[in-house]
Amino acid sequence: MRAFLMAACAAMALFAGQAEAAPARLKDLVEFDGVRGNDLVGYGLVVGLNGTGDGIRNSPFTEEIMANVLERLGVNITGEQFRPRNVAAVLVTSRLPPFARSGSPVDVTVSAIGDASSLLGGTLVMTPLNAADGEIYAVAQGTVIAGGFSAEAQAARVTQGVPTAGVIPSGATVEREVDFDFRTLSNIRLALRTPDFTTAERIETAVNREFGRGVAVMQDSGTVLVNVSATRASSPAHAMSRIENILVEPEIRARVVVDQRSGTIVIGEDVRISRVAVSQGGLTVRVEENPMVVQPNPFSDGATVIVPQSTAALSVDSGTGGMAEVNTGTSLSELVTGLNALGVAPHDMIDILKSIKAAGALHAEFIVH
């Protein structure tokens, strides 16, 4: 095992020596203070379904909203037994983009909240969309485009995708604008999506190199303050158009992310491990059921009996070697490459990485999902 690791270390070291981190635009690294969207939500009704809507007995709120809609249209159904299967109560969600103006279209997502089996072919009735302050900022209506289909018979059912949720492209119209005047800003804060002191210092240096010394000031690991008036731009919008395209090389923290459900392992470039010895063995227990059906003799009073037959097998795979020693400074990617060469399964590799972290030899942030 050690021979495999040494060969993998040499190959990976050569590759790492040639790799360089690519710079990124500021618009891909930070969020600009004041330039943000707002979430919208509404409660509506989808009609025109082909018998795949809510069961009114199980979803009484659907009957209530349907009655309210018909009453607003001048139809009185008080006391009537109106229980169709072609309507469904839904939650409508959307996001108001920054600087959205009245009349601008936005996309909406429609999701069933009752026992409807499909929204395919349905039409969303006019639904107001509210923000966190309770005010109506958009109105949605249109044909729902479902993301799947469902077919059902008496003894079988086939479903692909999620037919109980769909989208309406440009299905909402902005009715109210967010009261925010970007032209009055004298200072703009750049909020790093991944706070880091080194990255913030590089952003400060890059902005000052573009506009002059003192324009940008790093406040902490996640914030850089830019004095818009000192940029000598004609407006804050013009200054932002230049700032967001400045190239900065971000500093990435040493991090290992694993997903135990899928066996996915993501390793950062700067992950390092101290000198440690690794040994791994696999234990497999296999249990099989082979039931046997025993029939009674002809013309007897016996009954058919199912006799269970179980077999269990235990196997231990200790690998091709004992313990592998990893030298100080070896990157984690080199260790994983060596383990891959020996055929170690991803889930076993995750257990090895957790053990190395518990031993204090893994110098990186370890995240498990």
TrEMBL record:
UniProtKB keywords: Bacterial flagellum, Cell projection, Cilium, Flagellum, Periplasm, Signal
Subcellular location: Bacterial flagellum basal body
Signal sequence annotation: 1-21
Entry GO MF terms: structural molecule activity
Pfam families: FlgI (PF02119)
Chief localization: other
Entry keyword annotation includes tRNA-binding: no
Domain of life, per lineage: Bacteria
HAMAP family linked to this entry: FlgI
Entry similarity comment: Belongs to the FlgI family.
Function recorded in the entry: Assembles around the rod to form the L-ring and probably protects the motor/basal body from shearing forces during rotation.
Assembly mode: The basal body constitutes a major portion of the flagellar organelle and consists of four rings (L,P,S, and M) mounted on a central rod.
The protein, known as: Flagellar P-ring protein
Organism: Ketogulonicigenium robustum
Lineage, highest ranks first: Bacteria, Pseudomonadati, Pseudomonadota, Alphaproteobacteria, Rhodobacterales
